[in-house]
Design a protein that fits this description.
By secondary structure, this protein is of the alpha/beta class. The chain has helices spanning 8-14, 56-68, 80-91, 106-115, 131-141, 161-170, 183-186, 221-234, 240-251, 253-272, 291-297, 312-320, 371-383, and strands at 73-77, 97-101, 122-126, 145-149, 174-178, 196-200, 214-218, 277-281, 304-309, 327-328, 338-340, 361-365. The chain folds into two domains: 8-251, Type I PLP-dependent aspartate aminotransferase-like (Major domain) (Aspartate Aminotransferase, domain 2), CATH 3.40.640; 254-382, Alpha-Beta Complex (Aspartate Aminotransferase, domain 1), CATH 3.90.1150. 37% of the residues lie in helices and 15% in strands. β4, α6 (161-170) and β5 (174-178) form a beta-alpha-beta unit. α1 (8-14) runs antiparallel to α2 (56-68) and α2 (56-68) runs parallel beside α9 (240-251). The longest helix is centred in the C-terminal third of the chain and has 20 residues, at 253-272. The structure holds pyridoxal-5'-phosphate. Pfam families: Cys_Met_Meta_PP. Keywords: Pyridoxal phosphate, Transferase. InterPro entries: Cys/Met-Metab_PyrdxlP-dep_enz (IPR000277), Cys_met_metab_PP (IPR054542), PyrdxlP-dep_Trfase (IPR015424), PyrdxlP-dep_Trfase_major (IPR015421), PyrdxlP-dep_Trfase_small (IPR015422).
Length: 385
């Protein structure tokens, strides 16, 4: 049903969301059953056997995610990191190597370095905009995976997906893109040459800060078979209620992202005019080093804005603790505005490493509230400096 549907919003609403044939229920019911009656030993009804392997609510989310990213196969997990862990273990073996951006999300780096490192997976962080360094790191380590986050969390670095795909493929590596910050409404990495997309669906896809989840999406059947096997054999699947909430969130992704884009742009411009601000990291600014690439590969600049303060750590901390509408909290991508101090919160695990985040930086996840109220909130907080 999804092949002929062109528009993102139509795919978000309809892919995998056929009405339930028994009653005609337009919203497919949530299936909580962990097991399924067999007609005879091993004779399954439509392939359903046991909830870790298949569940209709998860299947419908997976079809929706595949449609959203213009992929062929999607796998839904209990968190973004569970998705990343299963993906890496599906593809790599001890002795294999990952080249990743040197400003990757701290939790992804912790998983790759501290967890999978102990099981023999090597890693080299590189500046993804440095083609020579990237090529050298892949070739020297015979890397099998290149891992890109664009925009990156929280430095808002933009990486040219098509170019990195070419470099990775020429050296025999696969390209993974973590598309969490952009969301499939603004960017579809599989259409730009990436082999695999991962998401923390906890963020924009879920969209309401009420469900933790992750996803892996691919086009290739052989890759899908390997990932499907690990999903089943390891079992970090999303539960039915989580799958339902994620599906419900994804249906409205397009309308939410438009509001996030608009609000973030206004907030970024307002911040840039403040004398207390040293730098605003936002790919929508023409002088952002990744602006032209972002314009080429994204259909909007997203809802994330990072800001560095001339008053250093003390100023960043004061603002973080002074806003009222921007809630000081981990996570991002929900309808409500959040403020995060990465060096002590989301990225505390990479303190002291090459991936450490500046101590004068705050990350804003700009929500869909009325932007005048958001700016008033920031203005009042700036008054506390
Ligand atoms: C870019 C990015 N990737 C992956 C993750 C991990 O996802 P989760 O927290 O759902 O495990 C996060 C979480 O913040 C993230 O920001």
């Amino acid at each position: 049903m999804t092949e002929n549907i062109q528009g993102s919003n139509t795919r978000f609403v309809h892919a995998g969301q056929e009405f339930e044939p028994h009653t005609g229920a337009v919203v497919p019911p949530v299936h909580f059953s962990t097991t399924y009656a067999q007609e005879a030993i091993g004779k399954l009804r439509n392939g359903y056997e046991y909830g870790r392997g298949t569940n209709p609510t998860r299947d419908s989310l997976q079809a929706q995610l595949a449609g959203a990213e213009l992929g062929k196969h999607a796998f839904s997990f209990s968190s973004g990191l569970a998705a990343e862990d299963s993906l890496i273990r599906a593809i790599l073996r001890p002795g294999d190597h990952i080249v990743l951006g040197n400003d990757a999300y701290g939790g992804s780096f912790r998983l790759i370095d501290r967890v999978l490192g102990a099981w023999g997976i090597g890693n080299t962080p590189v500046d993804m905009s440095n083609e020579q360094a990237l090529t050298a790191a892949i070739e020297k380590n015979k890397a099998k995976l290149v891992w890109v986050e664009t925009p990156s969390n929280p430095m808002m670095t933009i990486t040219d997906i098509a170019k990195v795909a070419q470099i990775a493929h020429a050296a025999g590596a696969l390209l993974v893109v973590d598309n969490t910050f952009a969301s499939p409404f603004l960017q579809q990495p599989l259409t730009l040459g990436a082999d695999i997309v991962v998401h923390s669906t906890t963020k924009y896809i879920g969209g309401h800060s009420d469900v933790v989840g992750g996803a892996v999406i691919v086009k290739d059947d052989e890759l899908a078979e390997k990932i499907g096997f690990i999903q089943f054999a390891v079992g970090a699947v999303s539960g039915p209620m989580d799958a339902f909430l994620t599906t419900r969130g994804l249906k409205t992704l397009g309308v939410r992202m438009r509001a996030h884009n608009e609000n973030a742009e206004k907030v970024a411009h307002w911040l840039r005019e403040r004398k207390e601000v040293e730098r605003v990291l936002y790919p929508g600014f023409e002088d952002h080093p990744g602006h032209d690439i972002a314009k080429k590969q994204m259909s909007g600049f997203g809802g994330m804005v990072s800001v560095q303060f001339s008053g250093g750590e003390a100023a960043a901390r004061k603002i973080a603790e002074s806003t009222k509408l921007f809630t000081l909290a981990e996570s991002l991508g929900g309808i409500e505005s959040l403020m995060n101090y990465p060096s002590e919160m989301t990225h505390a695990s990479v303190k002291g490493t090459e991936l450490a985040v500046p101590v004068n930086l705050l990350r804003l996840s700009v929500g869909i509230e009325d932007v005048a109220d958001l700016i008033d909130d920031l203005d009042r907080a700036f008054g506390a400096l």
